[in-house]
Design goal:
By secondary structure, this protein is mainly β. Helices cover 0% and strands 53% of the residues. 30% of the residues are buried.
């Protein structure tokens, strides 16, 4: 069974930075893609940044140039470095992993950016 656990969320002022981490103890395989989605109150869940098992990445237009996704395939860990945060980034951030046709989700970590 795959379990994803997020950490690193919290409260930060506008212009600050946070680094999110997602880890799993599952070491029997390498996920095809890992990354992050987010959901603000009253909004739909949206893609933030994902990374394949190689170097290919995908970013939401709203975070390009500010967020950086990285992963360590030997540990099945994915990180999200978030810089120049603004209040529009406030949301619950969910770790995501894909293996073949299966999608896995973490429980989420709250990120709040104050003005």
């Amino acid at each position: 069974q795959v379990r994803l656990v997020e950490s690193g969320g919290g409260l930060v002022q506008t212009g600050g930075s946070l680094r999110l981490s997602c880890r799993t103890k599952e070491m029997a395989f390498t996920f095809d893609r890992m990354g992050w989605y987010r959901q603000a109150p009253g909004k739909q869940r949206e893609l933030v940044a994902t990374m394949g098992s190689g170097a290919n990445t995908a970013y939401a237009d709203s975070v390009k140039g500010r967020f950086t996704v990285s992963r360590d395939n030997t540990e099945n860990t994915v990180h999200l470095q978030m810089d120049n945060l603004n209040p529009e980034d406030t949301a619950v951030y969910y770790c995501y992993a894909k293996l073949l046709v299966a999608d896995y989700w973490g429980q989420g970590t709250q990120v709040t950016v104050s003005t």
